[in-house]
Design brief:
There is one protein chain. It is built from 11 helices and 7 strands. The chain has about 210 residues and is of the alpha/beta class. A 5-stranded parallel sheet has the order 5-4-1-6-7. It has a two-stranded antiparallel sheet with strand order 2-3.
């Protein structure tokens, strides 16, 4: 049986959250600026720089409005409730922790500032030029952690990017809601043996703290 040795979380909606949601990039992806939004999430550039590739360019007041929304979102980034405790328990269980996220550059530093501790692995779309659910992005996580994909549990809030994508690449994966539920209670005996064994170790680490 392959033993899970790391947990790789998605960032937003999983480890951190935006409490003042303006949905700037989601709005761009859903309209005529889809290509620009994808460019901003796969290159180390800000939105204004990405918009330079658009002809004709949006009006200045429109760009300024988007920038203000992004700044407001970045200022409101917080750690999700319960994540600090989960993070500490995973460390006690001697599990590596990574983050893999589709992310635009302006959101990176506020996300780092919100994290409770250092990461063992970090793969961000704007740094590597790939977005989930591209299979290669999950392999990059494995390379950073010096593990195989079956040794990494991927966890996130989006089914395609965070569950189906890594599963297709050969890694175990589950939604963050299921992970949080199992963190509080032991998994069913019908769960895969690797998951049962993982949460037994997590439970032992929680018990060690309580003792």
């Amino acid at each position: 049986m392959t033993k899970i040795r790391a947990v790789c979380f998605d960032a937003f909606g999983t480890v951190v959250e935006i409490t003042d949601k303006r949905r700037t990039f989601q709005g761009l992806v859903n309209n005529i600026y889809t290509d620009i939004a994808i460019r901003a999430m796969t290159q180390p550039i800000d939105l204004r720089t990405a918009l330079k590739f658009l002809n004709p360019a949006p009006k200045e007041e429109e760009i300024a409005g988007w920038e203000a929304d992004i700044a407001a979102e970045c200022a409101s980034i917080k750690l999700r409730p319960g994540i600090k405790s989960i993070w500490a328990t995973l460390k006690r269980a001697q599990l590596k922790i990574a983050v893999c996220s589709n992310l635009a550059a302006p959101y990176a530093m506020p996300m780092f500032d919100a994290l409770p501790d250092e990461l063992d692995g970090l793969v961000l779309s704007y740094r590597v030029g790939l977005m989930k659910p591209h299979k290669e992005i999950y392999s990059l996580v494995a390379s950073q952690l010096r593990l195989t994909l079956p040794q990494i549990l991927f966890v996130g809030d989006r089914i395609e990017e965070d569950v189906l994508g890594p599963a297709a690449a050969g890694a175990p994966a589950m939604p963050i809601g299921e992970f949080e539920a199992l963190f509080g209670f032991a998994p069913s005996i019908f769960a895969p043996p690797t998951i049962v064994e993982l949460f037994e170790r997590i439970g032992a680490a929680k018990g060690a703290k309580a003792g």
